[in-house]
Amino acid sequence: MKNFKIFLLLIVFLAGISAVQAQSKTKSTKPGISGGVLVAGNFTWFQVKNHPSNGIRYNASLGWAGGLWLNVPLTSKLSFEPQFQYSVLDYSGNNNAVNQFDGRLQYQSLPLLFKYQTSPNFALIAGPQVDFLNSAKNDGSTRFFKRQFESISTILTAGFELFPRNRVQMYGRYMYGISDLKEVTNPNRGVDFYNQGIQMGLKVKLYEKKKALPPPPPPPPAAPVVAPEPKDTDGDGITDDVDKCPTVKGIAKYQGCPIPDTDGDGVNDENDKCITVKGLAKYQGCPIPDTDKDGVNDEEDKCPTVMGLARYQGCPIPDTDGDGINDEEDNCPHVKGTVENKGCPELAKQYKFDNKKVLFLTGKAILTKASKVELEKVVKAMNEYPSLKLYVEGHTDNTGSDKINIPLSLKRANAVKTYLFTRKITAERMLTKGFGSTMPIDSNKTSKGKANNRRVEFSVREN
């Protein structure tokens, strides 16, 4: 510990020397006074000395601290920072020896720190700290009281601070006690107890007084004005005293300036048919025209006489399959269909397919033979339209709960998919979903209505 004292004093000494050197080499303006709040964790233990058997030892334990700080700059890099902390220090012995204190001490702590900023984001801190004991609380078997500890004690501390001029700052410091905390009534007679620990925390700046900038120097006295003889700098026949453009040749019509170009498009106003709008010379100073008024100019418009959209280079939304439904609204943009079926062909009508004939064994996901005959029409349609995908939806009536009905309806949809797969319709062309009893098409109060609700529905699209 003797070496640590020397190291701590060396840091303070070097910080003072560096500050003096910095002051002598530069005239940087020191920052203003600032202040704020802090919160920290205390990792503390007792350093025990003069114990005859070395029988009392302590582990590092975690406490906490919170408080206020005030930073007073002394130079551009060195400052004095007193702090006021409400500090809780926790102590934990590692062998439960007799007369060993286990518990916590609560202090009002007054660190008096000197801070030296070595770079914009790093500073060294060092100084003394005075602790005023408020209370003592026991956790161990040996009973201790506040009066058995010194009410005022001191430590030396040193550490570092990150981002010292930011709103949020981080710091860490080592605390080395130089006062024996044991009072005369403490049962550990002849044994010395010293606080030691590490404090890591955050500081938040709530106030900072900005340094006022020095006033600018007064302007130099104005030189005496000598009236120049009238001259014509640009040689356009108009003397500079009446020439609004004395360094550029112009004409009297424009008070010695060239013919103006109001919109700055390189076409002078006398030849510009669109004086206030930038354009091109080949369009006599007007912008590139947009014949069909669709917001895409004719030079970029592949359909200049028909209104369209920019994403289609000025042409209307295409209808690839020519069924009268544009591709953005067509679920089958490459296959002709109907408006009623969202641009897809009506395969049920075309192949005389009736989804009501696709039935299952009661309470099961097993297709009847008659259902397989009906599904052969679907196989034929899928083979003749290889770009289409088939969407199979399973539904049930409201008999039972959805915990049963939804899995059952999905199994029935998958049973259809499995059969079509055996008929060489690839799996990626089929999508299934089970809705249970959530989407009835008839009343579930009658047997006929329930039968109508137990169904598998089919739809097609290209994506």
Number of helices: 5
Number of strands: 12
CATH level-two architecture of one domain: Beta Barrel
Rg calc: 45 Å
The gross shape turns out to be flat
Main sheet?
A: 8 strands, antiparallel, barrel
**CATH topology call of one domain:** Porin
Termini separation comes to 77 Å
Structural class: alpha+beta
Strand content: 25-35%
Give the integer mean of the pLDDT values: 85
Side-by-side strand order of the widest sheet: 1-3-4-5-6-7-8-9
CATH C-level class of one domain:
Mainly Beta
**Order of helices and strands, N to C?**
HEEEEEEEEEHHEHEHE
Helix content: 10-25%
List keywords for this structure.
alpha+beta; Porin; eight-stranded antiparallel beta barrel
Give an overview in words.
The strands form two sheets. An eight-stranded antiparallel beta barrel has the order 1-3-4-5-6-7-8-9. Strand 3 (61-73) and strand 4 form a beta hairpin. Among the domains are: 2-13 and 32-208, Porin; 351-461, OmpA-like domain (60s Ribosomal Protein L30, Chain: A, 2-Layer Sandwich). It is of the alpha+beta class and 463 residues long. The protein is flat, with a radius of gyration of 45 Å. It is 16% helix and 30% strand. Residues 1-28 have low confidence and may be disordered. The protein has helices spanning 2-25, 347-350, 369-384, 402-422, 447-453, and strands at residues 34-49, 58-59, 61-73, 78-93, 103-119, 122-138, 152-162, 168-177, 192-208, 389-395, 430-434, 455-461. The two termini are 77 Å apart.
